[in-house]
From TrEMBL:
It comes from the Bacteria. Keywords: Signal. Pfam families: DUF4440 (PF14534). Gene3D superfamilies: 3.10.450.50. This is YybH family protein. Residues 1-18 form the signal peptide. The keyword Nucleotidyltransferase does not apply. Residues 26-134 form the DUF4440 domain.
Protein backbone atom coordinates (compact mmCIF):
# COMPACT_ATOMS: atom_id res chain seq x y z
CA UNK A 1 0.00 0.00 0.00
CA UNK A 2 2.81 2.41 0.89
CA UNK A 3 4.51 1.68 -2.45
CA UNK A 4 1.31 2.45 -4.34
CA UNK A 5 0.94 5.78 -2.51
CA UNK A 6 4.59 6.62 -3.18
CA UNK A 7 4.27 5.81 -6.90
CA UNK A 8 1.06 7.86 -7.12
CA UNK A 9 2.75 10.82 -5.41
CA UNK A 10 5.73 10.63 -7.77
CA UNK A 11 3.49 10.48 -10.86
CA UNK A 12 1.45 13.45 -9.65
CA UNK A 13 4.64 15.41 -9.04
CA UNK A 14 5.97 14.62 -12.53
CA UNK A 15 2.65 15.60 -14.12
CA UNK A 16 2.51 18.88 -12.19
CA UNK A 17 6.09 19.71 -13.17
CA UNK A 18 5.38 19.02 -16.85
CA UNK A 19 2.23 21.20 -16.65
CA UNK A 20 4.19 24.06 -15.09
CA UNK A 21 7.06 23.76 -17.59
CA UNK A 22 4.74 23.67 -20.61
CA UNK A 23 2.65 26.55 -19.29
CA UNK A 24 5.76 28.63 -18.69
CA UNK A 25 7.00 27.86 -22.20
CA UNK A 26 3.69 29.10 -23.63
CA UNK A 27 3.79 32.23 -21.49
CA UNK A 28 7.35 32.86 -22.72
CA UNK A 29 6.23 32.53 -26.35
CA UNK A 30 3.59 35.19 -25.71
CA UNK A 31 6.15 37.45 -24.00
CA UNK A 32 8.48 37.05 -26.98
CA UNK A 33 5.64 37.82 -29.40
CA UNK A 34 4.78 40.91 -27.39
CA UNK A 35 8.40 42.13 -27.54
CA UNK A 36 8.69 41.34 -31.26
CA UNK A 37 5.49 43.26 -32.01
CA UNK A 38 6.64 46.24 -29.97
CA UNK A 39 9.94 46.19 -31.90
CA UNK A 40 7.93 46.44 -35.13
CA UNK A 41 9.00 42.96 -36.24
CA UNK A 42 5.96 41.08 -37.58
CA UNK A 43 8.14 38.34 -39.09
CA UNK A 44 9.58 37.49 -35.64
CA UNK A 45 6.11 37.81 -34.06
CA UNK A 46 4.88 35.11 -36.45
CA UNK A 47 7.39 32.57 -35.06
CA UNK A 48 4.81 31.82 -32.36
CA UNK A 49 2.43 30.47 -35.00
CA UNK A 50 2.38 27.05 -36.66
CA UNK A 51 4.01 27.45 -40.05
CA UNK A 52 1.38 25.42 -41.87
CA UNK A 53 -1.43 25.86 -44.35
CA UNK A 54 -3.67 24.47 -41.58
CA UNK A 55 -3.11 27.44 -39.26
CA UNK A 56 -6.47 29.15 -38.63
CA UNK A 57 -6.81 32.83 -37.73
CA UNK A 58 -10.27 34.19 -36.98
CA UNK A 59 -10.65 37.96 -36.83
CA UNK A 60 -13.13 40.69 -37.65
CA UNK A 61 -12.82 39.95 -41.39
CA UNK A 62 -13.53 36.25 -41.02
CA UNK A 63 -11.33 33.16 -41.17
CA UNK A 64 -7.88 33.09 -42.69
CA UNK A 65 -6.18 29.76 -43.30
CA UNK A 66 -2.43 29.35 -43.53
CA UNK A 67 0.66 30.84 -41.97
CA UNK A 68 1.65 32.83 -45.07
CA UNK A 69 -1.86 34.27 -45.50
CA UNK A 70 -1.91 35.26 -41.83
CA UNK A 71 1.48 36.96 -42.18
CA UNK A 72 0.29 38.78 -45.32
CA UNK A 73 -2.82 40.01 -43.47
CA UNK A 74 -0.76 41.28 -40.53
CA UNK A 75 1.55 43.17 -42.89
CA UNK A 76 -1.40 44.59 -44.84
CA UNK A 77 -3.33 45.69 -41.75
CA UNK A 78 -0.26 46.93 -39.83
CA UNK A 79 1.98 48.47 -42.52
CA UNK A 80 4.09 50.56 -40.14
CA UNK A 81 5.03 50.94 -36.48
CA UNK A 82 2.52 53.78 -35.99
CA UNK A 83 -0.31 51.45 -36.99
CA UNK A 84 1.19 48.58 -34.99
CA UNK A 85 1.53 50.69 -31.86
CA UNK A 86 2.62 49.10 -28.61
CA UNK A 87 1.02 45.79 -27.68
CA UNK A 88 0.09 44.63 -24.21
CA UNK A 89 -1.39 41.22 -23.34
CA UNK A 90 -3.41 40.43 -20.21
CA UNK A 91 -3.54 36.67 -19.85
CA UNK A 92 -6.83 35.56 -18.27
CA UNK A 93 -6.26 31.80 -18.32
CA UNK A 94 -3.85 29.16 -19.53
CA UNK A 95 -5.35 25.66 -19.44
CA UNK A 96 -3.97 22.30 -20.42
CA UNK A 97 -6.53 20.48 -22.54
CA UNK A 98 -4.43 17.35 -23.15
CA UNK A 99 -0.83 16.26 -23.51
CA UNK A 100 -0.71 18.04 -26.88
CA UNK A 101 -2.99 21.06 -26.41
CA UNK A 102 -3.29 24.22 -24.31
CA UNK A 103 -5.94 26.91 -24.45
CA UNK A 104 -5.06 30.53 -23.70
CA UNK A 105 -7.64 33.29 -23.17
CA UNK A 106 -6.66 36.89 -22.78
CA UNK A 107 -7.06 40.54 -23.67
CA UNK A 108 -4.92 42.55 -26.07
CA UNK A 109 -4.45 46.30 -26.17
CA UNK A 110 -2.65 48.46 -28.73
CA UNK A 111 -1.58 51.93 -27.67
CA UNK A 112 -1.24 53.93 -30.90
CA UNK A 113 -0.96 57.51 -32.10
CA UNK A 114 -3.60 56.65 -34.73
CA UNK A 115 -6.04 55.56 -32.02
CA UNK A 116 -5.94 52.75 -29.52
CA UNK A 117 -7.45 49.34 -30.22
CA UNK A 118 -8.29 46.45 -27.94
CA UNK A 119 -10.09 43.15 -27.75
CA UNK A 120 -9.97 39.56 -26.56
CA UNK A 121 -8.32 36.44 -27.91
CA UNK A 122 -8.49 32.68 -27.61
CA UNK A 123 -5.42 30.75 -28.70
CA UNK A 124 -5.08 27.02 -29.20
CA UNK A 125 -1.50 25.86 -28.74
CA UNK A 126 -0.37 22.46 -29.97
CA UNK A 127 2.91 20.65 -29.44
CA UNK A 128 4.25 20.04 -32.96
CA UNK A 129 7.71 18.50 -33.39
CA UNK A 130 8.39 19.07 -29.68
CA UNK A 131 7.59 22.80 -30.00
CA UNK A 132 4.52 24.66 -28.71
CA UNK A 133 2.92 26.70 -31.51
CA UNK A 134 -0.37 28.53 -32.03
CA UNK A 135 -2.55 26.47 -34.37
CA UNK A 136 -5.70 28.56 -33.98
CA UNK A 137 -6.11 32.24 -33.05
CA UNK A 138 -9.50 33.88 -32.57
CA UNK A 139 -8.93 37.57 -31.91
CA UNK A 140 -11.68 40.16 -31.78
Amino acid sequence: MKQLLLITAILLSITATAQNNDEQTIRNILKRQNADWNAGNIDAFMKGYWESDSLMFIGKSGITYGWQNTLNNYKKNYPDTATMGKLHFDIISVKRLSVLYFSVVGKWHLTRSVGDAQGHFTLLFKKVNKQWVIVSDHSS
